[in-house]
TrEMBL record:
<dbReference type="InterPro" id="IPR027417">
    <property type="entry name" value="P-loop_NTPase"/>
</dbReference>
<dbReference type="Pfam" id="PF00005">
    <property type="entry name" value="ABC_tran"/>
</dbReference>
<dbReference type="GO" id="GO:0005524">
    <property type="term" value="F:ATP binding"/>
</dbReference>
<protein>
    <submittedName>
        <fullName>ABC transporter ATP-binding protein</fullName>
    </submittedName>
</protein>
<dbReference type="InterPro" id="IPR017871">
    <property type="entry name" value="ABC_transporter-like_CS"/>
</dbReference>
<keyword id="KW-0067">ATP-binding</keyword>
<keyword id="KW-0547">Nucleotide-binding</keyword>
<dbReference type="InterPro" id="IPR015854">
    <property type="entry name" value="ABC_transpr_LolD-like"/>
</dbReference>
<dbReference type="InterPro" id="IPR003593">
    <property type="entry name" value="AAA+_ATPase"/>
</dbReference>
<feature type="domain" description="ABC transporter">
    <location>
        <begin position="2"/>
        <end position="219"/>
    </location>
</feature>
<dbReference type="InterPro" id="IPR003439">
    <property type="entry name" value="ABC_transporter-like_ATP-bd"/>
</dbReference>
Length: 219
């Protein structure tokens, strides 16, 4: 289970003023929740919230629990937490453009596993068998998104965080990514997805709207 308890965060705006981005925010992802959409207007803090959940931003007050344990806010300890438990797909995918698909997915494989074998398994899971040697710069947006998802899955994370995973894709490709998420959820994978897309939101088990620094459950 993931839990944010009374989480607050203040950021400095370009004009130097402080802005309270999160204000005693609460969030729980129970073990039986397979997917949660985080909605909210641009600038409401969706990406920042995912970065906190990923252990990439420790500059907050309040508590973040994973499986009943406090997630550390210090950089090195939170990096260990991320390595063990979190898959993270950023808005821009962050793939190495000049390397091939296999190389990129191998980077996500955790210690103690055969990197090549695990990477191939994950490419099969996102229906990209045969793409191993293809340079990332030759991929379509939908294929690059799948590679980023495969890399996130490679370490067998407890949860995959995806930031606007269909933002740059057309409707048909969005549908195929949602079908993939549904498939992966049936195999036990869990997702928290920041999105502006109503189609993505409707495909999730739960929808939370970020407004005025807090999350409100939406039907
Ligand atoms: N460390 C920081 N320092 C200063 N400002 C920050 C910091 N982190 C986030 N912000 C600001 O907080 C606001 C929320 O940004 P964020 O990217 O999380 O919003 P978002 O809801 O994901 O937006 P979008 O839907 O446009 O992607 C922005 O105004 C951003 O500039």
């Amino acid at each position: 289970m993931l839990q944010l308890d009374s989480l607050s965060k203040t950021v400095r705006e370009p004009n130097g003023q402080q802005r309270r981005l999160f204000d005693a925010l609460h969030m729980t992802m129970a073990d039986h929740d397979r997917s949660i959409a985080i909605l909210g207007r641009s600038g409401s803090g969706k990406s920042t919230l995912l970065r906190i959940l990923a252990g990439l931003d420790g500059a907050y007050t309040g508590s973040y629990f994973h499986a009943g344990e406090l997630v550390p806010q210090r950089e090195q300890a939170s990096a260990d937490f991320r390595m063990r438990h979190i898959g993270y797909v950023t808005q821009s995918y962050d793939l190495l453009e000049d390397r091939n698909v296999l190389h990129n997915v191998r980077l996500g494989v955790g210690p103690g596993e055969d990197a090549e074998e695990r990477a191939s398994e994950c490419l099969a899971a996102v229906q990209l068998e045969g793409f191993e040697r293809k340079p990332v710069r030759h991929l379509s947006g939908g294929e690059a998104q799948r590679v980023a998802i495969a890399r996130a899955l490679a370490k067998r994370p407890d949860v995959v965080l995806a930031d606007e995973p269909t933002g740059a894709l057309d409707e048909r490709t969005e549908r195929s990514i949602l079908d993939l998420f549904a498939d992966l959820q049936r195999q036990g994978r869990r997702f928290i997805i920041a999105t502006h897309s109503e189609t993505v939101a409707r495909a999730c088990d739960r929808r939370l709207v970020l407004a005025d620094g807090r999350l409100v459950e939406r039907g």
